[in-house]
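Database export, one record per block. Field names are fixed; values are copied verbatim from the stored entry.
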Amino acid sequence: MTLFSGGGLWRPKSLKLVGTAAYESVSSGVAAVLERIGVASVGMEVRHGAYLLLFLVVVPWAVMAMVGRGRPADLGTRRPNRVGWRLLIIGFCLSLPFLYWMVQSPRFAPYYGPQLERIGTGAFLAYYLVNMLSEHFFLHGFVLAACRVGHRWPEPAGLVENVTRGVRRTLQWLGLAQPVDDATGWRRVRLWIGLPPGCLPALITSTALFAAVHVGKDGRELLLSIPGGVALAYVAYRSESWLIPFVLHLATAGTACVMMVSGI
């Protein structure tokens, strides 16, 4: 592979170098643009945030628009249904013991602590807000649309709550125990958990990419990212919006940071 650089051809030794060079080139360009519009000094976090917004939000949305899938609803930018808000609260509560276990890892604080001290709490929170917004739009908006049959989000399917008592009533309140009719195998499972048709490839892809984002971080965080990725992708489809996994991840990450800073 060859890339033009300056006055001649540059032949990187690996694809990693290609990615690094592309990132540095785009980051420098973003920094130059920001400085030209009046920002005197642009830090690394600002450049990285602008880079994420460009390549994880603007470019994917533009690509989907070019193939006729650019409506916000096609990408899961919708008002969440009532199941989504329930799953948000339950999911956050269930995550607390796992967050505590993750924060106790000897590698967790050394990974995030120096950045928090260097740029301050406000800038750190703003940076991670942009980071997660971009990440979840891409992984739980764009990917769940592009990798699904039809290359768009499914239409809202509604929720059946026709049981008034018992365990089944609780399961239906959580969006589970939906009618399965005479279905068998995977289709029966899919109907029971309320997952729309044609979503499994997208769910697997989103989970794999979510785990890949955590490669290089603390081992416990990486380990939790696999079931966490499955859960977030499912919650996105079940709530009919990528906003619920975004808010859930934001809440859990913020709680982990509070635990880290407070020494819990």
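Remark 1: The first strand starts at residue 3 and ends at 5.
Remark 2: Residues 1-16 have pLDDT under 50 and may be disordered.
End of record.
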